[in-house]
Amino acid sequence: MNWTWFHKLGSPKWFYEISGRWLPWLACAAALLLVVGTVWALAFAPQDYQQGNSFRIIYIHVPAALLAQSCYIMLAVAGAVGLIWKMKLADVAVQQAAPIGAWMTFIALFTGAVWGKPTWGAWWVWDARLTSMLILLFLYFGIIALGQAISNRDSAAKACAVLAIVGVVNIPIIKYSVEWWNTLHQPATFKLTEKPAMPAEMWVPLLIMVIGFYCFFACVLLMRMRLEVLRREARSSWAKAEVRARVEGVR
Amino acid sequence: MKPLRKKRLYIVLAILAGVGIAVALALSALQENINLFYTPTQIANGEAPKDTRIRAGGMVEKGSLQRSGDSLDVQFVVTDFARNVTIRYRGILPDLFREGQGIVALGKLDADGVLVADEVLAKHDEKYMPPEVTKALKESGQMSSAEGAK
């Protein structure tokens, strides 16, 4: 197997160039998918027979919750790469992805609470799914706080990577909480192995929203990482040249 | 892979395995406490404590709902298709409450094994359906028992 692409990732300059080429495509895809998905979901998808229009919250809730968990898995993988191969870019990814993941977790919890009040009759219930999702939010907060609190960049990277790896045991707990225990939360909407338990005119816009959220995440993450790479490489000649070109291009 | 990297990889895997095992042990020890509610079978077997607030969950049995004529008192039977528990409640039921629907009730068991609830939550499943489909299914008689009681 050819590993050159992996070792190339260790070079901030190479990352900056390649991500600059991907970014416009990702941004277009994200904007297109999110607009199409939102209009379809809010205006054209049929109502649910029991919940009426309030079920439409799944078009935000499910993608945000999926992304919050995928983002944490990505943090743990990046943390492991950073610890084992001492790749600086992995630490950049951990630090820059954590706030996005925290926001996605918050959105999932918030939309769930808004939906839960009319549907279940309660804003919040201490069931296994909701509680493990709250723990995920606190794990994100922990990683952000740890990264900010330690001023030495290498120690901060190591501490955040270890916390990210340790916290990843929470992900299977979130995933299977609805199967292992009696919870108020319903089982998964999307499963890889089965068709979703709803008609196509309901799940197709949901799928579009999910892919749109992932593109949006990739886009925002790359933008944040590029900025951070420039900041960290501020003394190198290619970064200086890049910033100068940008500034002069603006004038 | 270089030996040093391999060593670090093993350390990372060891941390992950250690934490995973610790959490798995803790969760299996807490197994009973993490369940949000007791099923009617667990209550019938005496697994639910008396005189403390517990949650009971299951399907509302069809035809079991009795409303009082002059107050908000309701009484219904919750089943897991093996055993039943009678629940008494005073108050407004959530929108989704209907016979055949999954619910979770909070309250105390009295001496007769009746749960006197002070809160009733409706449980929703992961199935969504447009109203026209429900209507068509009902007309053709294919609607399962769970949705029939609307």
Automatic annotation (TrEMBL), chain A:
Cell membrane listed as a keyword: yes
Cytochrome c assembly protein domain span: 13-185
Entry keyword Membrane: yes
Example of a GO cellular component annotation carried by this entry: plasma membrane
GO BP term, example: cytochrome complex assembly
Pfam families, alphabetized: Cytochrom_C_asm
InterPro entries: Cyt_c_assembly, Cyt_c_biogenesis_CcmC, Cyt_c_biogenesis_CcsA/CcmC
UniProt GO MF annotations: heme binding; heme transmembrane transporter activity
Membrane association type: Multi-pass membrane protein
Subcellular localization(s) per the UniProt record: Cell inner membrane; Membrane
Keywords assigned by UniProt, alphabetized: Cell inner membrane, Cell membrane, Cytochrome c-type biogenesis, Membrane, Transmembrane, Transmembrane helix, Transport
Membrane spanning residue stretches: 57-85, 97-116, 128-147, 159-178, 202-223
Primary role: Required for the export of heme to the periplasm for the biogenesis of c-type cytochromes.
Family: Belongs to the CcmC/CycZ/HelC family.
Protein name: Heme exporter protein C
Record organism: Pseudomonas kuykendallii
UniProtKB/TrEMBL annotation, chain B:
Gene Ontology molecular function terms on file: heme binding; metal ion binding
Superkingdom of origin organism: Bacteria
Segments in the Extracellular topological domain: 30-150
Classification via SUPFAM superfamilies: Heme chaperone CcmE
Residues binding heme: 124, 128
UniProt KW keywords: Cell inner membrane, Cell membrane, Cytochrome c-type biogenesis, Heme, Iron, Membrane, Metal-binding, Signal-anchor, Transmembrane, Transmembrane helix
Keyword Transferase: no
Pfam families xref list: CcmE
Annotated membrane topology: Single-pass type II membrane protein
Statement: the UniProt record of this protein carries the keyword Membrane: yes
InterPro entries, alphabetized: CcmE, CcmE-like_sf, NA-bd_OB-fold
Cytoplasmic side stretches: 1-8
A GO biological-process term: cytochrome complex assembly
CC terms in the record's Gene Ontology section: plasma membrane
Subcellular location: Cell inner membrane; Cell membrane
Stated family: Belongs to the CcmE/CycJ family.
Biological role stated in the UniProt entry: Heme chaperone required for the biogenesis of c-type cytochromes. Transiently binds heme delivered by CcmC and transfers the heme to apo-cytochromes in a process facilitated by CcmF and CcmH.
Protein name: Cytochrome c-type biogenesis protein CcmE
Gene: ccmE
